[in-house]
């Protein structure tokens, strides 16, 4: 008999399918069963159970939610519920904070982790926007708090540019604006992957020539990059503050302040794709090992908890 069952929902593109096979295989060797494809979009709630493809989510010993595809509000709502009943990686509360750029920056700053200077302004606070631009030395970025892939991010340079952007942002139905000082950096970053409090891998990303956004979806390219100890420690600390079991911490070097700053913390950082592995980005096996260890420990913990309850 297996020691327990882990539910998985992993992305399948970019080599995800193979990663999933490896995780399933390794868990099987440790006598842990897996149910894959648990996309909560298809789940139904009836008679006190959340049922997804015939699996009762509440009966799982652990659930790994690892699919960066956009979640429907329904799906997200169920993720929150599942996370309260079944040990879920990432746990929903930390996931929700990390998905929000303002909450992330604020929490990190409160706990002594450096981020770019940031502001939050009410939607009608035109003066606040102007003030921020002055305080930030004339260059700032407007970011959707829950954006990804670099989309929706607008650079505002000087008051003329603010005037042009204002009608556009005030047309949105947002209630507040999140702003960051535009950091003077070399247009490269570190993506540092942390699993279970441990450093498992790093690579660099570089913005296309003449551009400043490093996202792959904005045309950025990846390269092999060894982080120094300071970068690793910053990433470990950021993941810990947010309470994330799995994190991909984006770090850049601020040339003005002469220090590293955390830009954001991703909750579903991609494994290296087969093409990236060919470039020498080879952290997948460390990351899989750390994830499998974490899942195994979670299953054992849950089993012990149940034994205690019965006793
Ligand atoms: N404050 C900033 N100063 C300079 N560049 C930035 C700043 N914030 C973000 N960027 C650039 O924009 C990219 C996308 O920003 P990020 O906050 O990571 O949002 P997303 O979730 O869309 O990836 C970053 O990878 C970085 O290259
Ligand atoms: Mg990013």
TrEMBL record:
UniProt keyword terms in alphabetical order: ATP-binding, Manganese, Nucleotide-binding
One MF annotation (Gene Ontology) recorded for this entry: ATP binding
Alphabetical list of Gene3D superfamilies matching this protein: ATP-grasp fold, A domain, ATP-grasp fold, B domain
InterPro entries registered for this protein in UniProt: ATP-grasp, ATP-grasp_RimK-type, ATP_grasp_subdomain_1
Protein name in UniProt: ATP-grasp domain-containing protein
ATP-grasp domain segment(s): 105-292
A Gene Ontology term for the protein's cellular component: cytoplasm
One Pfam short name: RimK
């Amino acid at each position: 008999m297996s020691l327990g069952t882990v539910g998985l929902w992993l992305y399948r593109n970019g080599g995800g399918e193979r990663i999933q096979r490896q995780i399933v295989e390794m868990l099987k060797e440790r006598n842990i069963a897996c149910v894959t494809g648990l996309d909560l979009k298809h789940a139904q709630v009836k008679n006190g159970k959340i049922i997804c493809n015939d699996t009762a989510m509440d009966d799982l010993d652990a659930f790994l939610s690892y699919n960066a595809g956009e979640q429907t509000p329904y799906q997200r709502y169920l993720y929150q519920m599942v996370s309260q009943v079944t040990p879920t990686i990432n746990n929903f509360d930390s996931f929700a904070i990390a998905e929000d750029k303002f909450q992330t920056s604020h929490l990190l700053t409160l706990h002594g982790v450096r981020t770019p200077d940031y502001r939050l302004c009410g939607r009608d606070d035109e003066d606040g926007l102007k003030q921020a631009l002055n305080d930030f030395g004339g260059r700032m970025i407007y970011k959707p708090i829950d954006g990804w892939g670099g989309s929706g991010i607008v650079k505002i340079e000087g008051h003329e540019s603010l005037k042009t952007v204002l009608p556009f942002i005030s047309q949105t139905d947002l209630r507040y604006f999140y702003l960051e000082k535009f950091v003077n950096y070399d247009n490269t970053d570190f993506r540092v992957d942390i699993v279970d409090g441990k450093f498992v891998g790093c690579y660099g990303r570089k913005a296309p020539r003449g551009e400043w956004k490093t996202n792959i979806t904005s045309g950025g390219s990846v390269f092999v990059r060894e982080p120094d100890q300071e970068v690793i420690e910053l990433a470990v600390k950021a993941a810990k503050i947010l309470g994330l079991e799995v994190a991909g911490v984006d770090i850049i070097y601020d040339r003005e302040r002469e220090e590293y700053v955390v830009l954001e913390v991703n909750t579903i950082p991609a494994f290296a794709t087969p093409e990236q592995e060919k470039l020498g980005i080879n952290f997948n096996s460390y990351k899989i090992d750390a994830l499998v260890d974490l899942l195994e420990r979670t299953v054992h913990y849950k089993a012990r908890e149940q034994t205690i309850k019965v006793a």
